Amino acid sequence: MQQTLKKKGGLDLSLIWKVFGGALFVYLFLGFMVLPCLNTLTSIFTTKDAAGNMDPMAVIRFFFAGNMPSFVINSLKLAVSLVVTVNVVGISIVLLTEYFDIKGAKILRLGYMTTLIYSGVALVTGYQFLYDSNGMLTQWLSGVFPGMNRQWFSGFNAVLFTMTFACTSNHALFLRNAIRGIDYNTVEAARNMGAKPFKVLLKVVMPTLLPTLFSLTVMTFITGLCAMSAPTLLGYNSINPEIVRLAGSSVADEAFPQARAALLSIILALFTIVLLTTLNHYERKGHYLSVSKTKAKLVKQKIQNPVWNVVAHIYAYVLFIIYMTPVAMIVLFSFQNWPAIRAKSLNVSSWTLINFFGTQDYSYTTSRGKQRLREGVISGVFSNADTVGGIRLSFVLSR
Amino acid sequence: MIKLTDIVVKFDDFEALHNINVHVKEGEFFTFLGPSGCGKTTTLRTITGFIEPVSGTVSMQGRDITHVPIEKRNIGIVFQSYALFPTMTVHDNIAFGLKIKKLPKNEIEEKIKTIARKVDLSDEQLAKAVSQLSGGQQQRVAIARALVTEPAIICMDEPLSNLDAKLRVQLRNELKKMQREFGITTIYVTHDQEEALTLSDRIAVFNKGYIEQIGTPNEVYNHSKTEFVANFIGDINPLGEGVVKGLGLPADKHHFIRLERVRVNRPKDDDVFQTDGVIENREYYGLYIKYYINTAGQTIKVIEKNDGINIYEPGEHVAVGIHPQDVMSY
């Protein structure tokens, strides 16, 4: 077959394919990767000042203009904080559902996996129904404490809180698989040699999870750095929302917005490249390979100390409530009509299945002040079908 | 040394062990033998403390340890999977139990060196990750790790089953040599009858959660107490009506004979029941030859030593002799 393809009418077909393939690759590589980057860099370094002179040092001034360092610092602050909080919560949810014997673990797992089924925007919206300035909890709290700041759920803390729970999806998937891959005999062997349960967890179980945790940490860091929806909705000045803002801005509004956006993009890209290279280098060193040919399935560990057992159960269910809040809020508010949703107040009298399935069209005002009409039949049915489908998916995953 | 008295183990409604009674003596190599699901590993795990019995007692050196936590039993375990810690070096695997006991660092190093020498692990191997070792070397690490803490007894759960046949035989001999050298009481779990017969001082044959027989390898092989034991250890021929009548054996019992006890073309003794047979098939094993002989209305399997001279061809007529004392009746 190879032979017949090679020589036909004196032409080497495989060579033609190679040349064509090579040319396509070069086109894609240059056209979509190298040239856009070169253009961006050129536009930054050839930016002209107000007098019309080209100033290669403008890039340094761009960086310090418009409080740009604060966006970078804010993003780094969010990324570093997220690494800590996401790992704490992510490891917790996996240990609580896969390693420790916690009552109702299947339901808990389902709750912890809800973040797999909706976007960051949906998650923030779900929390806002409760915590926003006119959210249910805020309204109730301001009734009790009239002087309280109704904008309490905004800025860094709100973003960190929301993203912490949004970013544990990877832990729920990958760390769960890693922990399930542990040979239970290693746990038994350590116990047999005199190690107490906590020591076994620390010295035997956790080191096995380290490669997965490292990958998850890098992914979380990048997610924090590139965060978009939560900082935008909750008001936190990080890189990506600023890039979007600058990209949509005009020279009339402020100095060199596009060049500044490009510079921020490059800073973001550099961080990402460094992190991914580190991850790649670490992964090349290899994962810890289980030497067991016949693995024993992990048996859930009962927390022997009754006090710690109760604390672990409380912690597990508090996390469950936090995870389920956005879902519950979205489902509950789906029964309401559009004005009630906008008001973020639950009004049972306005609840109908028609609202839930979204058969009513509604008009709304866009951020640019235009009036739009949304067709309820399509949006409602599809969004609710998505939710139900997602819940079904997490049922399947939780098995 | 280790005594199990009336041990009953249940998993929900399923009773896995029914009144198990075993007494393992000091320094003995004791094997739990049986097919899959017979309860041998469950019994071992009851001794080590991973399973708590519903009733009965486990005592060690006269002390009731039924409810003593795993880590306080002073029992070493070698798992079927070896259960080595993949994130640690060989050295750290062996040192794990000693560090948990908070022994001084120099004492830990001394003990590791001593045990490594005994199980034939070099300094280079000690520095390696466990995944870099072969199956046989990993098994040595597992044994060293179990022995270094100087346990009162060592329990081994099918430690050779992951190895290839040749290495299994080699390590079997080394295992026995090591056990003799250390003089440690060993409880060994296997489904491999050959392993049990070659290694053990005594064997407990398990079946469906009961112990069918406890005895020396010779006792369980030559004087099997039950039909199950006779059938599970070695190969046997159930004797048909023709042979049973010929031998004058009671018809209300089942009668069996081991393959190597059937005599082919040998001079007839007075007590021997002899009849004509035809070679149906022949399997050549080198050291011995297995014949399938049609005689007295049944096919009897026979093993004959390969002497290079008396080799029979299929279709050949032979004289088949059975001595009544070789028959096992149940």
Number of domains of chain B: 2
CATH class of the largest domain in chain A: Mainly Alpha
Q: Strand percentage of chain A, roughly? A: under 5%
Mean pLDDT of chain B: 91
Oligomer: heterodimer
Distance between the ends of chain A: 48 Å
Shape of chain A from CA axes?
Answer: globular
- H-E string of chain B: EEEHEEEHHHHEHEHEEHHEHEEEEEEE
How many domains of chain A? The number is: 2
| Biggest sheet strand line-up of chain B | 6-7-8-3-9-10
Low-confidence stretches of chain A: 1-5, 377-382, 391-399
Largest sheet composition of chain B: 6 strands, mixed
**Average pLDDT of chain A, to the nearest integer?**
79
CATH architecture of the largest domain in chain B: 3-Layer(aba) Sandwich
How would you characterize this protein structure?
The complex is a heterodimer of chains A (399) and B (330). Chain A is mainly alpha-helical and 399 residues long. Chain A folds into 2 domains: 21-56; 67-322, MetI-like fold (Orthogonal Bundle). Chain A contains 18 helices and 4 strands. In chain A, helix 4 crosses helix 15. The two termini of chain A are 48 Å apart. With 330 residues, chain B is an alpha+beta fold. Chain B contains 10 helices and 18 strands. Chain B is elongated. The model of chain B has no long low-confidence stretch (mean pLDDT 91). In chain B, the strands form 4 sheets. Chain B has a 6-stranded mixed beta sheet with strand order 6-7-8-3-9-10, sandwiched between helices. A 5-stranded antiparallel beta sheet of chain B has the order 13-17-14-15-16. Chain B folds into 2 domains: 2-232, Rossmann fold (3-Layer(aba) Sandwich); 236-329, OB fold (Dihydrolipoamide Acetyltransferase, E2P) (Beta Barrel). Chain B has helices spanning 40-48, 90-100, 105-118, 123-127, 135-147, 165-182, 193-199, 217-222, 227-232, 241-247, and strands at residues 2-11, 14-24, 29-33, 55-60, 63-64, 75-78, 153-157, 185-190, 202-207, 210-215, 236-238, 255-258, 263-264, 273-284, 288-295, 298-305, 317-322, 327-329. The chains are: A mainly alpha (399), B alpha+beta (330). The A-B interface holds A 183, 185-186, 188-196, 199, 203-204, 207-208, 210, 288-296 and B 48, 50, 70-72, 75-77, 79-88, 96-97, 100-101, 130-131, 133, 135, 138, 145, 149, 161-162.
